[in-house]
């Protein structure tokens, strides 16, 4: 293969993996021709908080902290139900702190390894883990990019945010447990590789830094101070972490910030979107349905400037991560792992994820209606 073919292949792969980034940049540039780029619409606070979280989570992942916790909870003599419960529970609760995509990047490979060693089909387990990550991350501001933006954009208190997300998280966890418990149980013999945490002092240091980030998210510490602390400590302790930050996500957010700022200034757009968000129920379903087509993060950025109803937005975009793989970028992570590591066909995985998502909607949508109407 010549150099031109290689370059074309690399460009094709980049476009395939970074389609959301490309769309956000194109929209930002195109909309800037209307009346100039609106750089004032960029939320530097959100970008700093996202950067902080990515640095700390990347460090903890590199030190294999979550892998260690996961393997310690498993035994050589396991049942399929026990493995399902452990992996789904780990993914659900870890996503609240380290984001849905990182939880899946960490625990889906572990599930695939266990499935291979114990000779069972991992597709259903990975689907359940994906749903657990999407539903679990909805609880906290740092669980997902859209939650972090909603928390800061609407200037919410912890009480206001958790009053909406905690009831839904409880219902979601009960639903996931029931879903797991109704599955057939089989006895499995799994050989588990021992994992040791290296660099224990650095692990403790980044746990402390994680607490610093949490303090900045919940407004106990100035986010600029937290950003400086993360930068300085990482620079002197482990510069390599800077290379592993997902800068494409930061650029994607910046692109959408500029695009939303540009189009929000157009009177016709303002009238149209405001007209759609006429009441909480409409806002909820528009958030949920639009997420299926353009993903929940862009939908959050698009709708938030036009409404004060954060409750419907946060419930809608988080539920919108289910059903369509496009609904949440985290879904694509699981999909890629399964397709590349197993003989599962793409359509088989997509059908199974959509099927169980529809079951989840039967529980989540009525719960959301109750929260929106009565709370």
TrEMBL record:
Domain Citrate transporter-like positions: 25-306
Protein's cellular compartments: Membrane
Pfam families in the cross-refs: CitMHS
Transmembrane segments annotated in the record for this chain: 20-44, 83-113, 125-142, 162-182, 202-219, 225-242, 249-269, 281-303, 315-333, 353-374
Coiled-coil regions, chain positions: none
Keyword terms: Membrane, Transmembrane, Transmembrane helix, Transport
Membrane topology: Multi-pass membrane protein
Chief location: membrane
Annotated InterPro entries: Cit_transptr-like_dom (IPR004680), Diverse_Ion_Transporter (IPR051475)
Official protein name in the record: Inner membrane protein YbiR
């Amino acid at each position: 293969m010549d150099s031109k073919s290689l370059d074309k292949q690399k460009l094709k792969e980049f476009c395939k993996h970074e389609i959301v980034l490309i769309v956000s940049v194109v929209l930002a540039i195109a909309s800037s021709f209307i009346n100039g780029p609106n750089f004032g619409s960029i939320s530097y606070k959100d970008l700093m908080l996202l950067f902080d979280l990515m640095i700390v989570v990347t460090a903890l992942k590199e030190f294999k902290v979550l892998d260690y916790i996961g393997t310690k909870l498993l035994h050589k003599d396991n049942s399929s139900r026990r493995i399902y419960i452990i992996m789904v529970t780990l993914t659900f609760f870890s996503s609240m702190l380290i984001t849905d995509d990182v939880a899946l990047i960490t625990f889906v490979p572990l599930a695939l390894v266990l499935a291979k060693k114990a000779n069972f089909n991992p597709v259903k387990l990975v689907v359940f883990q994906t749903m657990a990550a999407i539903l679990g991350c909805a609880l906290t501001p740092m669980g997902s990019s859209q939650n972090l933006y909603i928390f800061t954009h609407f200037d919410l208190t912890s009480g206001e945010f958790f009053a909406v997300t905690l009831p839904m998280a409880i219902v979601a966890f009960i639903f996931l447990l029931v879903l797991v418990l109704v599955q057939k149980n089989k006895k499995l013999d799994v050989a588990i590789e021992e994992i040791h945490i290296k660099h224990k002092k650095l692990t403790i240091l980044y746990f402390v830094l994680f607490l610093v980030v949490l303090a900045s998210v919940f407004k106990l510490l100035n986010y600029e101070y937290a950003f400086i602390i993360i930068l300085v400590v990482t620079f002197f302790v482990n510069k390599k972490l800077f290379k592993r930050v997902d800068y494409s996500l930061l650029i994607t957010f910046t692109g959408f910030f500029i695009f939303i700022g540009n189009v929000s200034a157009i009177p016709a757009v303002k009238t149209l979107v405001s007209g759609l968000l006429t009441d909480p129920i409409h806002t909820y379903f528009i958030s949920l349905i639009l997420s299926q087509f353009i993903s929940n993060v862009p939908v959050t950025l698009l709708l938030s400037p036009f409404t004060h109803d954060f409750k419907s937005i946060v419930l809608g975009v988080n539920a919108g991560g289910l059903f369509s793989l496009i609904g949440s970028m985290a879904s694509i992570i699981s999909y890629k792992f399964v397709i590349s590591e197993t003989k599962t066909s793409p359509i088989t995985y997509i059908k199974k994820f959509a099927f169980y998502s529809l079951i989840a909607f039967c529980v989540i949508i009525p719960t959301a209606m109750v929260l929106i109407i009565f709370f």
